[in-house]
Design a protein that fits this description.
single chain; about 210 residues; 5-stranded mixed beta barrel; two-stranded antiparallel ribbon; 7 helices; 10 strands; about 30% strand
């Protein structure tokens, strides 16, 4: 089974590059955001056969009691805000009849995945940082909720191409008014890459 590891930035998976190259596992750096991810991933899949797309990255979590650095498996991801504003009321794209905004993982068949925390994801163009908007998220979504700028794009492309897809994210910060001095990006990247290498070793052993 051919695995493709996908990340938005090189920094997110840089500690794993020697491992990936040694194991001859393909990887792709797409750039940040839904548009860049969709384009880069689609272009890559036009030229390479892939059986499992493994999207890895860091993200913010809505739950202030969560531990920064923890790893989550994102089982469903939403293109946040895809629809129309009807005088303050949101109409989802599904109700407009023009598509869908929620996509799900597609694990490989007959593979026992590691038991880790699971979370719902939202994919945004503008990371939340205003108290009023964050309060709306808390009212609308159940915990845990993890925010990224690429996750739903990976699920979308995988669905279109009928490819198995998993997404794992390490929590680097809380979804709160922006305070970079409280972020734990280093810890999140470290834990993400430890998990990524262990998972790929495990996956290679059991498949």
């Amino acid at each position: 089974m051919k695995v493709l590891v996908v990340a938005a930035t090189l920094e997110e998976i840089k500690p794993s590059l020697p491992f990936l190259e040694e194991k001859h596992i393909m990887y792709l750096i797409t750039g940040v955001g839904m548009v860049a991810t969709t384009y880069a991933l689609t272009k890559f899949l036009q030229q390479h056969k892939v059986d499992l797309l493994l999207h890895a990255g860091i993200g913010g979590i809505l739950d202030p009691s969560a531990r920064l650095g923890d790893i989550y498996q994102i089982y469903t991801d939403e293109i946040f805000g895809l629809g129309a504003d009807d005088n303050g009321s949101f109409i989802p794209i599904e109700e407009l009849g023009f598509g869908k905004r929620i996509y799900t993982e597609k694990p490989p068949a007959h593979i026992q995945l590691p038991k880790i925390n699971k979370a719902q994801g939202i994919t945004v163009n503008n990371a939340h940082g205003a108290a009023e908007n964050i309060m709306r998220l808390q009212q609308q979504y159940q915990k845990p909720l993890i925010e990224s700028m690429e996750g739903a794009s990976a699920f979308f492309v995988a669905e279109q191409e009928e490819i198995n897809c998993l997404q794992f994210r390490a929590v680097s910060n809380y979804i709160e008014p922006r305070r970079r001095d409280t972020w734990e990006i280093g810890l999140a990247v470290k834990n993400l890459n430890i998990f990524l290498q262990r998972f790929l070793n495990y996956f290679n052993h059991v498949r």
